[in-house]
Amino acid sequence: KFYMQAFSSHRLPSLMEEFGDGISLKESLELKKEKIIHKEIGFSKKISKYNLDFGASYFKDNVYDKILLLPASTARLVAFNFKNTETNGFEIFLQTERNFFDFRLSASKILACDLSEKDTVKIIPHSPEYIVNLNFGLTLFHYTRVFFDSRYKSKIFRDRDNLISNDESLIFDGGFNYSLKAHQENLSLSFL
Asked: Of 8, 17, 108, 151, which one has the fewest beta carbons inside 10 Å?
């Protein structure tokens, strides 16, 4: 099945972004609303015999006056508008669900650029170039599910000038969910 979509929308600054929280987020009263133009094309295919789904998509977002939180000092953040940004990427996925077993693998390649300054292209802060997700679940006795999730993110920049960066990260989550009609318990563990 093939699909295409395109839309345009606006996002106003949140109260926190505009007025801060008085502790770690400074006020930013001059924020403008974001204008977002999104385009996407993709396909997905289901192979019923093996209960398998796979697909791919390509997307492009142009955001004008994009709002992002950036470091203003050692312990504080402030919201900024990025005048002109462009993000495009490609994602593939593979997933299956059997009687008691589910699995999903997805991988994305993303390029998110700040085009605000003429003749200079920088990476948008907090935007990894690669993301890989692996999710695995096992259902036991119809009311208990054990799960394992892992996420890989490539290096990200933390500032507008691309001088401060965080190394790549690998995050693991695991746990179980137990539920009956009148009772539900959840436990999860995370490792960074």
From this structure: 8
